[in-house]
Amino acid sequence: MRHKVIIMYDKGEAAGGEGSTNSSRQAALEEAASVVSTVAPRFFKLVKARMARDLDLADDIRDMGDSQIWVLHALSKGRHQNSELARNYNVTDPTMSRIIDALVRKGYVERHPDLDDRRCVLLEITERGTGLASQIGEHFHRAVVQFLSPLTEEQLNDVLKAYRHLGSLLPETSQDMERELHSLERDIRGGRERPADHHRERGFRGRRRAHNSYGARI
Is residue 25 part of a domain? Predict the structure, then answer.
């Protein structure tokens, strides 16, 4: 007796099989990466500009560059070394030192020797810097609210869902971030030591220089 075989597909699964599904997911992945990399820089640039138009914004905040604001925010979460912040924001140690020097002169940050290792210097936010960081956070939040206000409730829920997904990919603490950055650096150094990767590494250095120029404008 012959039996009829019926093949059923899950909703959204193409009859082409796993290869078709993987192709569809890869296309979605490429499109998502393109959207995030294009929208994110413009989003923060516009929100920062709207924050600067805030009439209640203190002159101390108006006079600060983007890099100083982000570094102050990082130090409000805990102490860091100069080299750690440089890695976080993808700039050189001397560039980060100049940013820190400006914050120290303004009384927002202090340098302290590490009691466990006298060769290291820890950067710590001052009480004045903590107050300013709090003000910046409030103004930035207000600017984001204003920016998102034209969206419908359904669209806002979509944004919320998307950023929760993105948040799940990020380290939860600055210490976790440091460990991940160290791991990435070890991988990069390991790649440099392989002769067969000479040409690929040279290309990577060029891309990294281009990325550094963007990171310096954070």
Answer: no
The pTM (predicted TM-score) of the whole model is 0.62
Structural domains counted in the chain:
1
pLDDT of residue 203: 44
Would residue 133 count as lying in a domain?
yes
Buried b (16+ CB within 10 A) or exposed e, 128-159: ebeebbeebeebbebbeeeeeeeeeeeeeeee
User: Which structural domain, as residue segments, surrounds residue 210?
Assistant: 51-215
**Range 209-217 average pLDDT:** 40
Would you say residue 27 lies in a domain? no
- Return the beta strands (E) in 52-207 as ranges: 80-81, 109-114, 117-125
Q: Residue 117 forms beta bridges with which residues?
A: 114
Are 41 and 31 a contacting pair, CB within 8 Å? no
Residue-level pLDDT at 176: 66
* Amino acid 207: pLDDT: 40
Q: What is the CATH number of the domain that holds 169?
A: 1.10.10.10
Helix axes 174-192, 198-215, angle to 10 degrees: 150
Residues 6+ apart with CB under 8 A from 42: none
Residue 153 within any structural domain of the chain? yes
* CB neighbour class for 81 (10 Å; exposed up to 12, middle 13-18, buried from 19): middle
